[in-house]
Write a structure and sequence with these properties.
Elements: H1 2-27, E1 30-36, E2 38-54, E3 57-61, E4 66-71, E5 85-86, E6 91-95, H2 98-145, H3 153-199, E7 202-204, E8 209-214, E9 221-222, E10 230-235, E11 240-248, E12 260-265, E13 273-280, E14 285-287, E15 290-300, E16 311-328, H4 329-333, H5 349-354, E17 366-374, E18 377-388, E19 392-396, E20 405-412
Antiparallel strand pairs: 1-20, 2-11, 2-16, 3-10, 4-6, 4-9, 5-8, 6-7, 8-10, 11-15, 12-13, 12-16, 13-15, 14-15, 16-19, 17-18, 18-19
Helix pairs in contact: 2-3
C-alpha cells in the first residue's frame, strides 16, 4: 500500500505543476481593453419625444352655408392651396351668394316700406295736430262764453268733446310715429344682417401667414350650424415654432421655464436644433398608468426648414460641463486582480478597491478609482468624479492628463500555446483534411 502511494506521489506533483503552468499561461492571454482620457463636453440631459407645432394656428371657418364656387389668389398670384402665403384680408374662397343676395334685396324693400310707413305716420300726425289746435281754440272760446243764452249747453258740451277727441288722436298719432320708427329700425337691422351674411360668402384670411391645411374643394357644400365648418388652417408665423414634448412625471420636477433644449428630426439627420422651455402645461395625461406632462419648447425657424408635425427627439439640458477631462463610464466600473497590478502598487490593493465608488449625476466631490496602463500591468489613479452622461464621466485628480491610457475592461485572446501546449495534459485534437484544422462547427 505504501509502495503504491510512493509511486502515485510523483504523478500528483506532475499534474499540479502542469495545472499551475496552464493557469499561468491562460492569464497571459488576457488582454486589456483600453481608452484614453479625453477633454470634451459632458451634457447631463433628459431625453423625450415630441412633435413640432406652429406657434400660433388660426382655424378659418364659414359662418354661412353654401357651395364653394372658387378659391382666391395668394401673394404670388396663384390659386390658394397648401403652403400658400397669404396676407391679412386675402380672399381664400367664395361661397355661392345667390340666396344671400336675394335676402339683401328683400331687406332693402322692407326698409323702403318702413320708411314710407314712417312718412305717412308723420303726415297723419300733422293733420291730427291741426285738428287738435282747432278743437283747442273752439274749446277756449266756449269756456269764455260758458253755458248761457248765447251758447247752448249742448253746443258747449260738443266743443269739450271735440277737444278731448282731438287730444286723444294726437297721442295716437305720436304713438304711430314711434311704431313706424321701430319698424324702420327693425328693417334696417335685417338689411344689415343680410348684407353681413352676403359678406360672409367671401372667406378672407384674418392674419398674415401660411396655409398648412386646405379642407374643402370647389363644389363642396359647407353647412354652418352650431359649429362653424373648418375650411383652412393658417400658421401665423413659421419662423417661430414649438415642440410639444411628453415628459414623464419622474422627470418633470427637473424642468423649468427658460431651460436650454436641443432636438433633432429625422428629416435632417446629423443636425441639431436649439430651443428653450417655454411652458409646462398642468393638464397631465395618463396612458397605461404612466403620467406625462406636455412641455412646450420654443425654437427659432428663420429659414422655415422645420415643418409642422415633424417628430423630434428632444434633450433637456440639466447640466453642461465644457472642456473637462472625461473617461468612459466603464473605466470606473472595472477592477483588476492582484496579479495584474504593478508590483509597487499591490500593497493596500484591498483598501483601494474598497474605496472605489460609482459616479452619480451632478456630484463633483465623490471619489473614484481608475486604472492606467503600466507596461504589462496597471496602476491606480485616484480621481474626483463629476457629472456623467450615458457615455463618459467628468474626472479630475493628480496624475490625470489628457491622452492617458486607461483600462476599461479585458478580453481573452488566443495565443500560440492554445494550440495544445498550454496544458500538457490536454488531449490532442485530431486535425481534419490534409493536416489542416477541423472545419468550424
Amino acid at each position: 500500500m505504501k509502495k503504491g502511494l510512493i509511486l502515485l506521489l510523483p504523478v500528483v506533483l506532475l499534474v499540479g505543476v502542469g495545472a499551475a503552468y496552464w493557469h499561468r499561461d491562460r492569464r497571459s492571454t488576457l488582454a486589456f481593453r483600453t481608452a484614453t482620457v479625453q477633454r470634451r463636453e459632458v451634457l447631463v440631459s433628459i431625453s423625450a419625444t415630441g412633435t413640432i407645432e406652429p406657434e400660433e394656428v388660426i382655424d378659418v371657418g364659414a359662418q354661412v352655408a353654401g357651395q364653394i364656387v372658387s378659391f382666391g389668389k395668394d401673394v404670388d398670384g396663384k390659386t390658394v392651396d397648401y403652403g400658400s402665403i397669404v396676407e391679412n384680408g386675402t380672399v381664400l374662397a367664395s361661397i355661392d351668394d345667390s340666396l344671400y343676395t336675394a335676402e339683401v334685396m328683400q331687406a332693402e324693400a322692407q326698409v323702403l316700406s318702413a320708411k314710407g310707413s314712417l312718412q305717412r305716420a308723420e303726415a297723419d300726425l300733422e293733420q291730427i295736430k291741426a285738428k287738435f289746435y282747432q278743437a283747442e281754440r273752439d274749446w277756449k272760446r266756449a269756456q269764455e262764453l260758458g253755458p248761457s243764452r248765447a251758447l247752448a249747453a249742448s253746443v258747449y258740451d260738443g266743443y269739450k268733446s271735440a277737444y278731448d277727441t282731438a287730444k286723444a288722436n294726437l297721442a295716437v298719432g305720436e304713438a304711430a310715429i314711434v311704431q313706424a320708427r321701430g319698424g324702420l329700425a327693425q328693417a334696417e337691422a335685417l338689411l344689415q344682417r343680410a348684407r353681413r351674411n352676403l359678406g360672409y360668402c367671401i372667406i378672407k384670411s384674418p392674419v398674415k401667414g401660411v396655409i398648412i391645411d386646405r379642407r374643402v374643394n370647389i363644389g363642396q357644400t359647407v353647412v354652418a350650424s352650431l359649429n362653424a365648418p373648418s375650411l383652412f388652417l393658417i400658421a401665423k408665423d413659421l419662423t417661430r415654432i414649438q415642440v410639444w414634448v411628453a415628459v414623464n412625471e419622474a422627470d418633470i420636477g427637473r424642468l423649468h421655464k427658460g431651460q436650454p433644449v436641443s432636438f433633432t428630426v429625422d428629416a435632417f439627420p446629423g443636425e441639431s436644433f436649439k430651443g428653450q422651455v417655454g411652458k409646462i402645461r398642468l393638464n397631465a395625461s395618463m396612458t397605461q398608468n404612466v403620467v406625462t406632462y406636455t412641455v412646450e419648447v420654443i425654437a427659432d425657424n428663420p429659414n422655415g426648414r422645420l415643418l409642422p408635425y415633424l417628430t423630434a427627439s428632444v434633450r433637456f439640458e440639466l447640466n453642461r460641463r465644457t472642456n473637462v477631462l472625461t473617461v468612459p463610464n466603464a473605466a470606473l466600473d472595472w477592477s483588476p486582480e492582484v496579479e495584474q497590478i504593478s508590483p509597487p502598487f499591490r500593497q493596500g490593493f484591498q483598501e483601494q478597491a474598497a474605496a472605489t465608488s460609482e459616479p452619480a449625476e451632478g456630484e463633483g466631490n465623490r471619489e473614484g478609482l481608475i486604472w492606467a496602463l503600466d507596461g504589462k500591468f496597471v496602476r491606480p489613479v485616484r480621481v474626483r468624479v463629476g457629472v456623467t452622461d450615458d457615455e463618459v464621466t467628468e474626472v479630475e485628480g493628480e496624475g490625470l492628463s489628457e491622452g492617458l491610457e486607461i483600462v476599461i475592461g479585458q478580453e481573452e485572446q488566443q495565443s500560440t500555446t492554445d494550440a495544445g501546449t498550454s496544458n500538457p495534459f490536454t488531449p490532442k485534437i485530431p486535425r481534419g483534411g490534409k493536416g489542416g484544422p477541423p472545419p468550424p462547427m
